Amino acid sequence: MMESQQEPKVTIPPLIPLEYSNRVMLKTILECGDDQIGLFGKTVVVGGWVKSSKEVKREPVAAALKPPTAAEAFPPSPGRKELSCVEVVQSRIPFFKKIIRVFGVSSDSYPGVREKFEPVPKPPPPPPSKFFVQISDGSSISSLMVVIDSAVVPVSAGHVLPTGTCILAQGVLEKSSSHGKQTIELKVEKILHIGTVEPDTYPLSRKRLPLDSLRDYPHIRPRTTTVASITRIRDTLDFAAHTFFHNHGFLHVQVPIITTIDSEGFSEKFQVTTSKKWGLGSGSDADVRHETVKAEQHIEARDKSKLGTGVKPEVKEDFFGRQSYLSVSGRLHLESYACALGNVYSFGPRFRAEKTGSIKQVAEMWVVEAEIAFSQLEDSMKCAEDCFKFLCKWILDHCPQDMKFVTKRIDKTIVHRLEYMMSISYERISYREAVDILRKVTDKTFETKLRWGVPLTAEHLSYLADDHYKRPVIIYDYPKAVKPFYVRLNDDGKTVAAFDMVVPKMGTVITGSQSEERLDMLSARMKEFDLSRDQYEWYQDLRKHGTVKHSGFRLGFDLMVLLMTGLTDVRDVVPFPRTHGKANN
C-alpha cells in the first residue's frame, strides 16, 4: 500500500520585534522569499515613512436616491397609450407635497392636502475610503503596502497621507489584494502614531530628485531609496573592515583627531584654536570665548614660520599652549602602538583644508589606517590587496538586494567589476616603470608634462589602470621628494618604500609605505623637511628605544563606498559632506 503524499511544511520565519522600539523591521517581512506565506495572519506593529499613497473611495449610493423621470416611472407598455401632460402632473402631486413641507407650509392651508407628511430622509453619511500606502523604514529596498480602511480605522476621508508622513500601525499580514510585485500587505487594525508633513515645503514631494539637488538636504535625503541603499552598503563596508582586521589579529586603536604635528607635510590643515582673535561677532559677542576651527593655509610644507621652535605669544595663551590642527593622518600615532602591540589599525575622520573642486575629496573624509610591526613594504602591499579583495567579496555576499538596486539604477557593470577584481592578481610596477610606460603613449596627450621625479597625476594613474593594464595596479618605490618624511629611504638614495593602489574607474584608493626605523636616516629626512626636533621628539623616541621595521597603509573608506556603489561624486556617499564654503548641517 502506497504511503500518502505529505504536503510540504510551511516555514514560518520569526517576526521578532526590535528590542528597543517594539516594532518589526520591514526587512524581516519583505525579504523572507517564499516563506512569506507563513506570515499570513500574523499581527505585527510596523513603522515607517510614506513613499506613496492612494485613496480609493467606494461607489456612492446617490444614484438610488435620484427621483425617477416620468418615462422611468411610467414606462409605456404594449397596448397602452402614453400619458398626457395632465396625467403626468397629477402623478407628481406627492412629490410637490414634500416640497411644500420642506418650505414649512402647513398642509392645512391646502384643503386638497389632508394626509400627514413623512419627514424628509437624511442623506446617508459619506462612504468609507480605503488608503493604500507604501511605507519604508530604511531596512530594505522594498516598501510594504499598508491598507487602511476608514470604516475600521478613523482616518478622514479625502485626507490622503502625503509622501513623508510618518506612520506607526498595528495590523494583520495578509496576501496582497493587488496584482503587483508584492505578495504581502498589512491590513491595519489600529494606528498608533501619525507624524504629519508639510507637502508644500517637503523636499521629497517631487519624485526622483537628482543627487546633486539632494545634497542641499542632507538631513532629509536618507529617506530616498538611493541614499538609503548607499547608507546600508556603507554600514556593511564599515563592519567588513573591522572584521578583516580582527580576523587577522589586529587591535583597534583610536588615534587623536587633534594633533600638534604635520604627519604628511603636503596638505593644508585646519588649525584648532580658542583664541579670541578668531572669535565671532563684535561688541559684547567678542568677549565670548568661541571654540573655533580656522583653515590655516600651508602651501609650503617646509615653511619655518609654522614649524619653528619659537612659539608666538597668542599661541601660548591658547587652549593647548601650542599650534594644534585637525589630524590629516593617524599613522604616526599608530606606530607607537604597533611598536608595543604588534598589528594595529584605526578607523576615523581625517581633515584637509584644500580648496579643491575634486569630486573625490571633501574636507572631512573617513579612512582606515593599519600599521604592522616586524614587516616590510612587500608585507604591507599584500595586506592592502587582501583587504581590498575581502571588502569587495563581503559586499557582494552581504548586500545582494542593494547591489541589485545599484546595478539597475546606477551602474550596470558594478557587480561584474567587483567580481573581476576579487579573482585576479594585481599588477605591480615601480614608479620608474610607470613613467617609462607613460612616455611611450602615442595615442593620448597628457595635460601634465611627465618627467621622472614629479607626482603622477590622476590622468596618468587612470591611463595605467583603465587603459593599459585594465586591472588594479600597485605602483611602488616613489621618488623621495613626493612622499612624507617618515617613509623609509631605499638603498639608491633617490626613492622611498612607498606604494599606491590604483583601481580602474576610481583612481588611488590605498596608499602605504614602510616607515623609516633608522634614527640617523629619520633625523636626516627631518632636516631635509625643516621639521622641528622638539615637535617630533616623541616620534624619534620610538627609534631610540627598541626600534623595529614596520609598515602600513591607509585606505580611503569614502572612496571604497564610492567604488562599491558605482557613483562618481564622493559628496553623494558621505552622510554630511563638508566642502569649501559649504557645511549646511
UniProtKB/TrEMBL annotation:
Q: What is its EC number?
A: 6.1.1.22
SUPFAM superfamilies on file: Class II aaRS and biotin synthetases
**GO MF annotation: an example:** ATP binding
User: What is a biological process (GO) this protein takes part in?
Assistant: asparaginyl-tRNA aminoacylation
Gene3D superfamilies on file: Bira Bifunctional Protein, Domain 2
Q: Which reaction does it catalyse?
A: tRNA(Asn) + L-asparagine + ATP = L-asparaginyl-tRNA(Asn) + AMP + diphosphate + H(+)
List the keywords (alphabetical): Aminoacyl-tRNA synthetase, ATP-binding, Ligase, Nucleotide-binding, Protein biosynthesis
Domain of life, per UniProt, equals: Eukaryota
Residues covered by the Aminoacyl-transfer RNA synthetases class-II family profile domain? 232-575
Q: Name one GO cellular component term.
A: mitochondrion
PANTHER family linked to this entry: ASPARAGINE--TRNA LIGASE, CYTOPLASMIC 2 (PTHR22594:SF36), ASPARTYL/LYSYL-TRNA SYNTHETASE (PTHR22594)
User: Which family would the database say this protein is a member of?
Assistant: Belongs to the class-II aminoacyl-tRNA synthetase family.
* Protein name, entry field: asparagine--tRNA ligase
What is the species of this protein? Answer: Gossypium raimondii (Peruvian cotton)
